[in-house]
Specification:
Two copies of one chain form a homodimer. Helices cover about 80% and strands about 0% of the residues of chain A. The first copy, chain A, is mainly α and about 80 residues long. Chain A has a single domain, classed as Up-down Bundle (Monooxygenase), CATH 1.20.1280. At the A-B interface, α1 and α3 of A face α1 and α3 of B.
Chain lengths: ~80, ~80
Amino acid sequence: MNENLLGIVAGILTSISMIPQLVKVIKEKDAENLSWLMLLVLITGLSLWVWYGFIKDELPIILSNAFAVLVNVTLLICFFIFKKS
Amino acid sequence: MNENLLGIVAGILTSISMIPQLVKVIKEKDAENLSWLMLLVLITGLSLWVWYGFIKDELPIILSNAFAVLVNVTLLICFFIFKKS
């Protein structure tokens, strides 16, 4: 329980830190600074973490990485919507 | 072992995805797009993940989050070195 709480707090903090970039990209409709290749690598890595969390049966890992997948898939979609030319 | 391998691959991928931003900031000597507050929140969260990894005795979690702490502490230092005025 104590370690789960620690994992949940850790997950909330690392999740919060992703929000500003997402808000900025959506607000400014500018995804110029994003790299689709790096987003793909990141999404693949995060998905493997979710898988790892399921195998280890650790809810904090599953939840925080699933949230990160969601944020970065949204960023990837924004990249293709907002990219110029 | 199999789950450790999965965790290590996941950790390598999420670690790789952080490198380009670090290289960009150091190369362009420009940290304008970084927020020190978000870096602090992220570093705190990642440090808690390292702690979580130690409690759970999971090497992939310890290693990948320790690497992420290193990258983001470097970004934070760059932010204060490169910031204008």
